[in-house]
Structure formats: structure tokens, C-alpha cells
Automatic annotation (TrEMBL), chains A, B:
<dbReference type="Pfam" id="PF09347">
    <property type="entry name" value="DUF1989"/>
</dbReference>
<protein>
    <submittedName>
        <fullName>Urea carboxylase-associated family protein</fullName>
    </submittedName>
</protein>
<dbReference type="InterPro" id="IPR018959">
    <property type="entry name" value="DUF1989"/>
</dbReference>
<feature type="domain" description="DUF1989">
    <location>
        <begin position="6"/>
        <end position="171"/>
    </location>
</feature>
Amino acid sequence: MTGKQRIPPRSGTAFELGKGQRLTVIDPEGAQVSDLLAYGLDDVREVISNGRTFDYEQTIKLTAGNTLWSNRSNGMLKIVEDTAGTHDFLLTPCSTATFKHFYPDKPVHRGCFGNLAEALSPWGIGEDDIPCAFNVFMNVPVDGSSGRLSVETPPSEAGDRVVFEALMDCVIGLTACSAYASNGGSFKPIDYRID
Amino acid sequence: MTGKQRIPPRSGTAFELGKGQRLTVIDPEGAQVSDLLAYGLDDVREVISNGRTFDYEQTIKLTAGNTLWSNRSNGMLKIVEDTAGTHDFLLTPCSTATFKHFYPDKPVHRGCFGNLAEALSPWGIGEDDIPCAFNVFMNVPVDGSSGRLSVETPPSEAGDRVVFEALMDCVIGLTACSAYASNGGSFKPIDYRID
């Protein structure tokens, strides 16, 4: 147990999570998003995969009881507790390019993508190794009929948390999201704890 | 214009597609699926990304007028014609592991994943470089409310086609799908043409 850590607004971090350890991601103020990536510690070419997860879990809405799978069809993280219930696994982390595209009038930020790439670089993980993140607390409703999606303010409230149990030794990347749309326009921290 | 080529049932191929060239993928008998991958010819670490595409196109249902984007936020392929209208970009290619998982009583097949890895190996592309494919003609309805998805028989009819225009020089991987569920239980060829 490491005690609670804080990820400042618009930043990210990375750390190792051993098999059997639990990672708790907490939204301390509410309506904030945290992009989560997981790589195999033994070989970082193994990485969480939204496609494998959607296939094995037969849903795009992941919550307690669901597992996040790797590109090699191994379970990486199991969601063991979830007080929020709304997350996204469809979208890639916000980046310089997405800031220019979606917010042409606002200052460009390197976003979760740049924050993750820097935080993960000590493990030899680079920008091209970043897939779709599991976007904790992110609210991306999908119209099943038209396929249209939109990025809405997260319904998470202060203190909401998701607990992940590692099914293998992992390297984790984790952010406090930098984009305007994903967190209702305000930038807030994210807390986490390893037990 | 190369003339029409045939991909035999449960197999795959790969080829280069120059910027401005058009790839037509045809379902010659109906209700068959073709997994499509695209990599940057100049640097195969650039690859189609379902997450970037969902973000920029704001939909999970891609059809004529939509662009398939890369992990580096560049447009790779534009869909310029689509007589079928139903495709999937949520799921990863079927593989030895998915055969064991979904069809425990049936013979294991290396699936589109194995077929793509072999076909793409001359360009230095390996298994770990295979992301979610754009699954042409694949029918994966999603319940927007529950998030549940299912793999159903494709509604494509004999002769249905999708035309992609390359927005950069690409390496393309393309299959005639090997999985039972995705093509209604029968294995059929896929035709394609480059113009």
C-alpha cells in the first residue's frame, strides 16, 4: 500500500503494478477523466486492446466484473469495483493533433498522448506504442442505430473510484485528462492508490 | 488497373496501394467479411486506428464520405463508394485464441490474424503490429444503451463493394474471413481490384 498519490491537472504518470496488486483510480472533484494504459512488464509489446476486450466481453461498456484484455488475448486488468459506471474505451488519448482539430481557437496542448509518451518512455514505450486508452470516467454515449458518438461531461461525482486488479505484471500509464470536452471544460486532478 | 483478384476462403493477402489509387473490395457471393489493415509504406509504424477514426469521424459506423485515420492523426483511406453500408471497426481479427474461446468444439484456425501476419511479414509487420482491422461487410450491432454487441450475419449481397481511395502510400492487408460467426457459418472468397 503506497498511500494516495495525486496526478496534477493536465499531466500524467507511469508505474509498475504487480500481478495481484490493485490500482484504485479516484475522481477527487468529480467530472474528470483519467486515460489508463497497461503494458506487459515482461514485454511492453503486449498492451491493452479495445478490440480484443470488446470481442471477449461482448460489450463496449466495461464495468465491475469485466476484464481488459491485451492484443495477445491475455487478461491484463480486471475491474473489481466501480462506483461510477461510465467509462470509454473507443477513443485514443487527446494529443497536439486533436487539440488543433477540435479546439482551433484554443492553445494547443500535448494532451494525454504527450503526457503518456513522456511518462512511459523509461520503459521504452514511445508514441507509436500508444493505442486506445481505457478512459476512466469518460462519457461517450453512442447511438446504436446511427453509430454517432459524442463526448459529454462525465457523470462521476467527487470520490467516485474504479478498482483494477492486475492479472499480470504491468506497466501502467495514467493521466488527469487535458481536453476540454472530456471533462466539461475544467481541468482537475486525479488521485490513485496501489494496494 | 490490375484486374480483379480473388482471395480464397480463409486466407489473406497484402499489397502496396499508392496515394490516389483506389482499392475496391467486393463480396462476390454475399454475407462474407474481409478484414482490412493499412500501414504507412514509408514507415509501417503508422497504422489505421479505430480510436482516432471514431474521434475524428464522430461515429462508429463508417461509410462513403468517411476517412480511416492513422495512429498519427493522418487520413489513410477515404471511403468513396459503399453499396453495403454495414461494416465493423470495433473488433480485432479472429485468431487461434479467439477460435479456442468462441468455438471450443471446432478445429482451431489461425484466422485472419494469422493470415494477415504472414501476408504482411515481407514489410516487417508482425503479430504485435496488428491493431483492430476495418472489417468490411462485418455486422456487429451495438445496443447504445447497454453497450452490448453481437456478431451477426452480414447483410451484404453478392456483388456489394466498398471503394477506398488511398490518401497516402500504404501497405494493405486484406482477408477472406475465417470465423464462423462473422460470415453466417460459411467460408467464402473475397474479390478486390486496384485502379
